[in-house]
Design brief:
- The chain is α+β, with helices and mostly antiparallel strands and 81 residues long.
- Strand 2, helix 2 and strand 3 form a beta-alpha-beta unit.
- Helix 1 crosses helix 2.
- The longest helix has 27 residues.
- The N and C termini lie far apart (42 Å).
């Protein structure tokens, strides 16, 4: 049980590090208001941007696949208004 708990803590810390990296890179690309959550190999990305469109989805997906090392099928991008 302790081993599993330790593994979960390590996984959560690693996810937090990846989330912060993704957010920092996206912010440097013009996405000032973005929040990334990783869980069980999937990424949920919430973003607020004026004139958000398909090009933004493509750009964020590319950043996420490279930064988070996950498949684009496991990425969900939600525009927050």
């Amino acid at each position: 049980i302790r081993k599993k708990a330790g593994d979960k803590i390590i996984e959560a810390a690693g996810n937090t590090e990846k989330e912060m990296a993704m957010e920092s890179i996206a912010q440097s690309k013009g996405y000032a208001e973005i929040c990334v959550y990783l869980e069980d190999g999937t990424a949920n990305i919430m973003v607020r941007k004026t004139n958000f469109g398909e090009a933004d989805v493509v750009k964020l997906t590319e950043i996420a696949t490279e930064t988070l090392n996950i498949s684009s099928n496991n990425i969900k991008i939600v525009e927050v208004r």
